[in-house]
Amino acid sequence: MSSAGRWGDLGERLGVGAAMAVVALICVWVGGWLFTAMTVGICAVITWELVRMLDPEAPAMRLGIVVGLALAAESVLPTGYALLLLAVPVFYGVATINEHRLTYALYATLIQLAGLGLIFLRLDDGITWMLWLALVVIVTDVFGYVFGRLIGGPKMWTRVSPNKTWSGTIAGWIGAAVVGGVFAAILGVTSELVPISIVLSMAGQVGDVAESAVKRRAGVKDSSALLPGHGGLFDRFDGMLGASVLLLLITPLIGFPFPVAG
User: Fold this and answer.
1) CA-to-CA distance for 173 and 136, rounded, in angstroms?
2) Coil/strand/helix, residue 227
3) 125, 176, 186, 259: which is deepest, by most CB within 10 A?
């Protein structure tokens, strides 16, 4: 592949990525209802994209709205009621679509859990930990993209994701470790933040590969064409989906968030 072909989409990716980053940073900084609204909207759009890939004949817009409304309600309900409500979009979707029902059920559950995890992280633990998680996922993605194309080498899983290389994958882990080390040093928290950052990086990569498997089964390159140079929101937030769900699940085990010095 020529240099121009290898980096031909970089300018467009950077421009759209910068615009997305500005909007996301504003929402993260303000927090509250604005961050919740952004998260609910993203989860609704991701569901719409997912359903369009799984079953083009299904009412994707309606299912996206159902997931968004359910997530908005779950974010303010007591935990028990929220967990019960989480099942509503799952069963409604299974009864509505005709193809790949199990895949939909799994993703509809994970999308809601990821949304709840992000909302609770920002509202309960503050902007610092939200930025840490976001940077772990972003740096993993950026390092994987840049170093995977610079170094190349053996492919990680050609049948599912033909562009993923082991060099990019390992570079993503290293980038996440750096993010964890920097935050641990600045905040004065335990060095365990470094391996935890690597584990979340891996979870993000699993989310990326899982979405690639869905796209390959659907025979599409991108989840949608909403974001020039990036594809759809699912393409951009697949890593955050995996990382945020894992963080939500392991939080009781690791005693997160860690006490901040000072």
Assistant:
1) 9
2) strand
3) 176
Note the pLDDT of residue 147: 87
Alpha carbons 242 and 113: distance in angstroms, whole number: 10
Determine if the pTM surpasses 0.85.
yes
Query: For the segment 169-225, what is each residue's pLDDT rounded down to a tens digit?
Result: 999 999 999 999 999 999 999 999 999 999 999 999 999 999 988 988 888 888 887
Q: Nearest-CA neighbor of 64 among 97, 31, 36, 33?
A: 97
Q: H helices within the chain, ranges in order?
A: 3-7, 10-30, 32-54, 60-74, 79-96, 101-125, 127-151, 166-187, 193-218, 233-254
Instruction: Locate the domains of the chain by residue range.
Output: 31-125, 127-262
Q: Which residue has 């060099």 as its token pair?
A: 167
Average pLDDT, the chain: 89
